[in-house]
Amino acid sequence: MEETDGKVSLKSLMEYVKYIKENVDISKLENYLKNMGITVTEDELQDLKKNLPIDALGKINKKNLMNALQNLSKGKLNINDLDKVLKYLGIKLTDREMEELLSYLHTDATGKVSLKTVMDNMKSIKENIVAQNLKNFLMNMGIILTEDEHRRLLKNLPIDAKGKIKKKNIINAVKTIPRGKLNINDLDKVLENLGIKLTDREMEELLSNLTINADGKVFLKNVMDNVKFIKENIDAQNLENFMMEMGITLTENELQCLLKALPIDDKGKINKKNIKNVLKSVPVGKVNINDLDKVLENLGIKLTEGEMEDLSNDLLIDTDGKVSLKNVMETMKSIKENINSQNLENFLKNMGITLTEEEHQHLLKFLPIDANGKINKKNIMNTVKKLDVGNVDIHVLDKLLENLGIKVTAREMEKLLSDLPVYADGKVSLKKVMESMKSIKENIDAQDLETFLKDMGIILAEYEFRYLKRHLPIDAKGKINKKNIINTVKKLPGGKIKLNNLDKILEILGIELADREMEELLSDLPINADGRVSLKNIIDKVKSIKESIDAQNLENFLKDMGITFTEEELQDFLKRLPIDVKGKINKKNIMNALKTLSGENITINDLDEGLGNLGIKTANKETDELLAKTFTDATGKIPLNKLLDNMKYVRGE
User: Fold this and answer.
1) Which of 94, 115, 207, 404 is deepest in the core (most CB within 10 A)?
2) How many CA atoms lie within 13 A of 488 on its CB side?
3) What is the DSSP string of 435-465?
4) Three-state DSSP string of 353-379
């Protein structure tokens, strides 16, 4: 604690009191648990001591301890201490909830009950309600529905085998009800129940924007739309304060520069997401090194402890303890995207991939190393997938697939594990993993067609289902290609999906959309009364989005491909491109214009993305041959015209 003239500051004293209340000494852990009425086995006690983070003063945070206790399988508590334990855990139950909890608990001969049983049942009670209590639950939240709205809501909410509904599902569904109302006097309570926190200034703005009827009620949709807008936007004139709250200080020049880069709507508002996106691409301002964690969190950036340590070591900190945001972003990007070439073997091992020395050397031949001895991680992942080298520990298969950017459902993982031949050492060929994964992602068993359609939210009439089965080719293994299903279904009148299955459909079709593209797609899709959208509309719209870009996004589009222009070169290039009435440029026209340039380069790390953006799809062998034929400069770049010439040679054009 800080002292001045032998006195302790009130702030330091309060912080110390808070610290004592929130932490427990590691040496007193067993007694602390006993005082709570909790008994654990010796093994569990040692596990707690080993796995819980301990600070420099030998203290454990009580919240961390409570979270760890909830996962113990053998921990017990005396039923008479239940109130006390729940209080320690910060859990408040109503009389009815406590009654329900006690009805599920079975004590042993000593009057004790499993802590895990308590926590599992308490979690279920807190997260769910009995379906027949829905109306009372909503009334207690301050939300008023008509009888018709109540019936419709109940019909659309999933109810489990015990007749329970998840509160989270109710809250998400309620937010979308167009005519649901609430009493303006209950606004605070409703927002709290919906998990929405507003500052005084935000609440003031919300109240000024709400339309309140004669009986003091307001439409819930009106509230939610306004809350969403307030939470997502700030007044342009408050930009400097918003930046300071994020932990970033700006000069007047930087503030004006940022304001020019940000779109401001007709109400003088700036979208917070736009601010964060602009800061990532045009970082301005300075950050106090002590606020670095907060700034990265506010920008939605997560780093591991190792990455954070590397970042802190590599930053250029001035005499005021500040660092430029540009330096932070550039250093962090390098750390996130690259590894030291000498760490390649460990990097792959951490992913669960083991290589022979011959495979390791073969892989290195295809990986460009920059002047600092770094290899791009994305390049490693792409090359590993293409070369099909190495073996994988079956126990870390899920981690490997995640690192390779492959999302797998529980059902797909089960199928994958059943298909893979496992060696005696518990490893499996990476080549086999990739082949099996590709087949699982692209195909289904013919007998599972109806289930697949149901999972996609596709409802077909009987005649449509018969037509579909008749026209879908089935291979020798009894498999149907998912893409063929979607392309056939889109021609049928019933070829519609629920909007929440959009991601699944795009994945099946092999379509990846950037946030901006997804936003454009969703803004233009006609959705019918039951929340469904035509597959044909989706595919046509995606095709349009993928074939063109906004003229104003040309610079970013080229940068994503690894191509950079000066401002003058960009304007000159723009003059060569036809722009349609919607302000769009066809990507094919961009490619044709790029072919005429002689001096431009593309970064090798962006090779797949660059070729993809140019409309060129390559097989793995073609990419390997292309890389082998094309020489890069010291910065890892390839002359664009040379690349395109070599592409023709590889394809025999």
Assistant:
1) 115
2) 19
3) HHHHHHHHEEEGGGHHHHHHHTT----HHHH
4) EECCHHHHHHHHHCCCCCCCCEEEHHH
Helical spans, DSSP H, in 548-632: 554-560, 567-575, 587-595, 607-613, 620-629
- In sign, the C-alpha dihedral spanning 120, 126, 127, 131 is positive
605 has a pLDDT exceeding 50: no
Which helix (H) or strand (E) segment is 481 a member of? strand 479-481
Radius of gyration of the chain (CA): 30
Which is higher by pLDDT, 232 or 653?
A: 232
- Residue 54 DSSP one-character state: B
Q: How far apart are alpha carbons 403 and 430 in whole angstroms?
A: 13
Q: How far apart are CA 295 and CA 330, in angstroms?
A: 15
In whole angstroms, what separates CA 482 from the centre of its chain? 25
The whole-number pLDDT of residue 601 equals: 55
Q: What is the DSSP letter of 295?
A: H
Question: Are the C-beta atoms of 129 and 97 separated by less than 8 Å?
Answer: no
Per the structure block, which two tokens stand in for 178?
């167009």
CA-CA distance, 218 to 427, in Å (whole number)? 61
Residue reference for tokens 């964690």 = 293
Residues 248-275: tens digit of each pLDDT: 999 998 898 888 888 888 888 898 888 8
Bridging pattern class, strands 38-39 and 59-61: unpaired
Contact 307, 271 (CB under 8 A): no
With a CB cutoff of 8 Å and minimum separation 6, the contacts of 419 are 436, 439, 440
Pairing relation of β-strands 548-550 and 637-639? Answer: unpaired
**In 10 A of CB 131, how many CB atoms?**
15
CB 353 within 8 A of CB 321: no
**Three-state secondary structure call for residue 3:** strand
Name residue 241's amino acid.
Answer: N
Contacts of range 566-575, beta carbons closer than 8 Å, 24 or more positions apart = 573/597
